[in-house]
Amino acid sequence: MLRIARALRSRLPRSGGCRAVSTAAPTPTDDGAGEGISHRMVSVNGINMHVAEKGEGPTVLLLHGFPELWYTWRHQMHGLAARGFRAVAPDLRGFGDTDAPPAAAAYSILHIVGDLISLLDSLGQDKVFVVGHDWGSMVAWNLSMFRPDKVKAMVNLSQVFTPRNPTRKSLEYLRTVFGDDYYICRFQEPGKIEAEFARLGTAWVLKKFLTYRNPGPIYITEDQGCGSSDSKIPLPSWLSEVDINYYTSKYEKAGFTGGLNYYRSLDLNWELTAPWTGACIKVPAKFIVGDLDLTYHSPGAQDFIHKGGLKNYVPLLDEEYNRKIKILTDVSIYL
Q1: Under DSSP, is residue 9 helix (H, G, I), strand (E, B) or coil?
Q2: Which residues pair with 20 in a beta bridge?
Q3: Residue (of 111, 109, 94, 83) closest to 11 by Cα position
Q4: In this structure, is the dihedral angle defined by the CA atoms of residues 173, 174, 178 and 179, taken in order, positive or negative?
Q5: pTM of full prediction above 0.85
Q6: Can you give the residue ranges of every domain in the chain?
Q7: What would the CATH number be for the domain defined by 2-167+276-328?
Q8: Cβ-contact 190, 335 below 8 angstroms
Q9: Each residue's pLDDT tens digit, 107-131
Q10: For the chain, how far is it from start to end, CA to CA, in angstroms?
């Protein structure tokens, strides 16, 4: 697993019933980052999923966050392939070229993990390494909790494991702590935030999210929304206009609703995961987070990470390795 973590870090731009249904590749990128990466569509769990792949050897499943795509992992895929791994990066349900069912209830964590189990079956893999970022980390934690038999080990970035609170639903907690203007609370009403994003323009919204470096919570007020698209957003060295153009082309085609439905399923997930209250993650794990990541500054997060809470729920956490790299300096949620 150390080789996987090193491959990830070396390429981090700073700051059943399954069948292949198509081998058509999505629109290629112009910066050469996608060179040698193959693309195909696979039928999984009742939807068609776009999958990017490179390399041969033990499989590493790469899970993106919001608002991202398989493209998030393009550099890491080259690094992993060069080190003798098979890198597999899907567009998750609702993102990019993967199908996006219209109902928010179709985005429960059981649906998402079910998609991945079906994908692993289609790849002919009994067990894989898993790497997640942001929402992809949340999916990876749950995949490892539901089906530890499918996971050799995992590396999660940004989003720490969150044990289920049996006494309070997720949205109730968020509204109590942050208020109704907190971005996740504002995401709940179908169509409203989509209209706000349309007003601002897809490219501007993507730049706003992907360059976010404020460790404080994100608020979207009723009167000001997400701000004004008249403001210019400078790009960091690791994010180019070519990258933004690729993301924009996919989000203008598929929209943001699929990704937003992950947030709209939080309370449904709370209900469905009641059988796993108090459950631990019983696979070897590493956790990496930036010191400017807003999740690292959520109430109680640092105490949970540093004072034994995370280790209690993830007993196979590699403590020695995490002491060295867990907190990346001057790094936000998009590492």
Answers
A1: helix
A2: 42
A3: 83
A4: negative
A5: yes
A6: 2-167+276-328, 170-266
A7: 3.40.50.1820
A8: no
A9: 999 999 999 999 999 999 999 999 9
A10: 19
